[in-house]
Design brief:
This protein has 96 residues and is α+β, with helices and mostly antiparallel strands. The chain has one domain (2-95). The protein is 59% helix and 16% strand. The chain is built from 4 helices and 3 strands. The chain has a 3-stranded mixed sheet with strand order 2-1-3. α3 packs across α4.
């Protein structure tokens, strides 16, 4: 009986993880972790770390950017873009 209860517990945890990964993006930003509702169901971009995103990276993760905008967290996209420009300027002056 002990093995069955562990199996059921594992099954329930797995189903909860599957449901969460299908309905939410987990986004690691400078100010912490955000669970953002998906615009469309799927399993792409379950976890995305945007702390070192360049501007071009957002084109590869458009669904995450749209979900952030619709959830009212567009400042995360803006902050990542500003950080990208800041890093490029710092590298430019460091090379001089």
């Amino acid at each position: 009986m002990h093995r069955i209860s562990w199996f059921v517990f594992g099954f329930l945890v797995g189903m909860a993880a599957l449901f969460t990964s299908q309905k939410y993006h987990i986004v690691q930003a400078e100010d912490g972790i955000h669970m953002v509702p998906r615009v469309a169901s799927g399993y792409d971009d379950i976890y995305v770390d945007v702390r070192k995103f360049e501007i071009a990276d957002w084109s590869d993760h458009q669904s995450v950017a749209m979900a952030l905008m619709e959830d009212g967290k567009g400042e995360i996209v803006k902050d990542a873009a500003v950080g990208s420009v800041r890093r490029q300027v710092d590298e430019f002056f460091r090379d001089l």
